[in-house]
C-alpha cells in the first residue's frame, strides 16, 4: 500500500522483530527539593499547599465576606450567620488550616450532612472532635465565604473575555506549578479524562455515561503511569468557551500536546499512553517529530491502512503493520471478544510470555495512571454536594493536593514502617488543627463564659445595651465570671 507524500509505505511484519533502540533524556525520576527524610507528613502537605496559597485564601475569603455583608446589610437579620461572622472577626491563617483539617476529617468520617458532625442529641452519633475544633456556624460561614479570587475583577458573563472557570483558574495554575516543581516523572506517562461530579448550573457541565458520576466538570489529566502522581490538570470549558482547534487537528491530539508542553516533557523521549479518544496516526507522527513516544488504542473510524482496518485475526492471533517507527497491531484475545487495534512508536512486534503482544501487555500495565489516581481519591473524599460548581472544584483540588503529597512522602520518607495513606491523612489533620485547637483551649468558647440568668428572667446586655441613648438590649444569659447580662453573640467583645 502506497503512502501519500514522502511517507514510507505500510508493510506487514511478523514477530519476533528486533527491539528498537529507545534513548531517554529525562532526569532521574522521583521527588525533588524534598525536606529531610524523617520529616512528618504535614511538611509534605505544605510543599504543595504552601503558605502563600493559604494567605491568598484567607485574604480573598475575608474580602468576599466583607463585601457581601456591605451589600446585604439592610436585608440581614441581627442574628444571622453573616452578622455572626462580623462579630467573631476575620478568618485567620491558623483557623483556615483547621478548616482544611475538618474537611479532610469529614472524608475519613462520612456523615449524611454537615450538621450531623455537631450532633449532640444522639450520643451514638456524637463526634466531639469537630465541636472542639470549630463551632458549626463558623465552619459553615468559612465554607460559604470561601474564595480564591476577587469577584469584582472577574469579567461578566456578557463580556467577550468571560471565562466560566475564572473563579478556580488561579488555584489550578498554582497547583500545576507545584506538582511539577517537586516531582520528576518516570518515562511512562498516561493521559486521560476525569470527571468532578456535579449537576450544578454551568456552561462547563458534561455528560459522560461511562463515568460513575455521569454529570460533572471534565478535566484533561497527565499523570505518571505507575504511581498515579498527577502532573498537570486542564479544565475543559465546554464547546462554547473552549478555544477553536487548529485546522485539521483532532481534539485528542491538541489535548495531549498541550499537556506535555505545559509540563515541559516534550523532546525528552517520554512515553505517553492514551486511550482511543486521543490516539491517532496524526498524534503518533506529531509526537515523534517532538521526540516523544506514543502507545494507545485506535478507533475503527480513524485513518489506518486497510491491512489493519479490515484485519480479522483468529483468537490469540495478531496482525502487525509498520511504517518507519510506527507499529500498528490488531489483536483478538478470545473468540467472542472484539478485536483491539493499537498504535505504538516504542514497541516492536514481539509476543510476550503470556502469548499476548508486548504492546498489549504494556498498554494494560501503563494506561491506568489517571484511573489509579481517581480510585485513590475516592477512598477518603466525602463527595459533599455543593450548589456552586466552582466551589466543588476547589474542594476537589484540596483532596488532589493531599493525595499527591502522600505519593511524595511514600517515595521519599525514611520512616520504617512507612505510614499507610489512612495514617498519613490522620497525621496531616493533626498537624493542620494543632495550633487552632491550642488557641481555642487558651480562650474558652462562649458556652464556658455564659450561663442562664437564675435570679430573674433577663438582664441588660453589658455590651450592646445602652439605656442612656435609648437602646436597650435584654439578655437571658449572663457572664459566668462577673454575672453581668451578656448575649452569646457578644462574648468575644466582653472583658471582665
From TrEMBL:
Residue intervals of the PiggyBac transposable element-derived protein domain: 41-406
Xref: InterPro entries: PGBD
Domain of life of the native organism: Eukaryota
This protein's name: PiggyBac transposable element-derived protein domain-containing protein
Protein species of origin: Mytilus edulis
Lineage: Eukaryota, Metazoa, Spiralia, Lophotrochozoa, Mollusca
Amino acid at each position: 500500500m502506497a503512502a501519500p507524500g514522502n511517507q514510507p509505505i505500510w508493510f506487514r511484519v511478523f514477530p519476533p522483530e528486533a527491539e528498537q533502540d529507545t534513548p531517554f533524556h529525562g532526569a532521574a525520576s522521583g521527588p525533588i527539593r524534598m525536606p529531610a527524610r524523617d520529616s512528618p507528613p504535614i511538611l509534605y502537605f505544605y510543599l504543595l499547599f504552601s503558605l502563600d496559597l493559604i494567605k491568598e485564601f484567607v485574604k480573598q475569603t475575608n474580602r468576599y465576606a466583607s463585601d457581601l455583608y456591605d451589600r446585604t446589610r439592610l436585608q440581614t437579620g441581627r442574628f444571622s450567620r453573616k452578622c455572626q461572622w462580623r462579630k467573631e472577626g476575620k478568618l485567620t491563617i491558623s483557623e483556615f488550616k483547621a478548616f482544611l483539617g475538618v474537611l479532610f476529617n469529614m472524608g475519613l468520617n462520612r456523615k449524611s450532612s454537615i450538621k450531623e458532625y455537631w450532633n449532640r442529641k444522639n450520643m451514638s452519633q456524637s463526634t466531639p472532635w469537630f465541636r472542639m475544633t470549630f463551632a458549626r456556624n463558623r465552619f459553615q460561614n468559612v465554607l460559604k465565604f470561601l474564595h480564591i479570587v476577587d469577584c469584582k475583577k472577574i469579567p461578566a458573563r456578557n463580556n467577550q473575555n468571560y471565562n466560566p472557570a475564572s473563579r478556580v483558574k488561579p488555584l489550578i495554575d498554582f497547583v500545576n506549578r507545584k506538582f511539577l516543581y517537586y516531582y520528576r516523572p518516570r518515562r511512562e506517562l498516561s493521559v486521560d479524562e476525569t470527571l468532578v461530579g456535579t449537576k450544578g448550573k454551568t456552561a462547563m457541565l458534561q455528560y459522560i455515561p461511562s463515568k460513575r458520576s455521569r454529570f460533572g466538570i471534565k478535566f484533561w489529566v497527565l499523570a505518571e503511569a505507575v504511581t498515579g502522581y498527577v502532573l498537570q490538570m486542564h479544565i475543559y470549558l465546554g464547546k462554547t468557551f473552549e478555544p477553536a482547534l487548529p485546522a485539521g487537528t483532532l481534539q485528542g491530539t491538541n489535548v495531549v500536546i498541550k499537556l506535555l508542553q505545559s509540563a515541559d516533557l516534550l523532546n525528552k523521549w517520554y512515553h505517553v499512553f492514551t486511550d482511543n479518544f486521543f490516539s491517532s496516526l496524526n498524534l503518533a507522527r506529531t509526537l515523534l517529530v517532538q521526540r516523544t513516544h506514543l502507545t494507545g488504542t485506535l478507533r475503527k473510524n480513524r485513518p489506518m491502512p486497510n491491512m489493519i482496518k479490515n484485519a480479522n485475526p483468529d483468537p490469540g492471533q495478531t496482525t502487525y503493520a509498520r511504517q518507519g517507527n510506527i507499529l500498528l497491531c490488531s489483536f483478538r484475545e478470545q473468540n467472542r471478544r472484539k478485536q483491539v487495534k493499537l498504535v505504538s512508536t516504542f514497541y516492536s512486534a514481539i509476543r510476550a510470555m503470556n502469548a499476548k503482544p508486548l504492546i498489549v501487555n504494556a498498554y494494560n500495565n501503563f494506561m491506568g495512571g489517571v484511573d489509579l489516581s481517581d480510585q485513590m481519591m475516592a477512598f477518603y473524599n466525602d463527595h459533599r454536594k455543593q450548589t456552586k460548581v466552582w466551589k466543588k472544584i476547589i474542594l476537589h483540588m484540596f483532596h488532589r493536593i493531599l493525595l499527591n503529597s502522600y505519593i511524595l512522602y511514600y517515595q521519599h520518607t525514611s520512616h520504617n514502617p512507612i505510614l499507610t495513606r489512612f495514617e498519613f491523612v490522620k497525621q496531616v489533620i493533626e498537624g493542620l488543627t494543632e495550633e487552632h485547637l491550642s488557641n481555642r483551649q487558651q480562650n474558652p468558647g462562649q458556652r464556658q463564659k455564659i450561663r442562664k440568668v437564675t435570679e430573674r428572667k433577663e438582664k441588660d446586655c453589658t455590651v450592646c445595651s445602652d439605656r442612656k441613648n435609648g437602646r436597650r438590649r435584654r439578655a437571658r444569659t449572663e457572664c459566668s465570671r462577673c454575672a453581668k447580662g451578656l448575649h452569646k453573640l457578644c462574648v468575644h467583645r466582653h472583658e471582665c
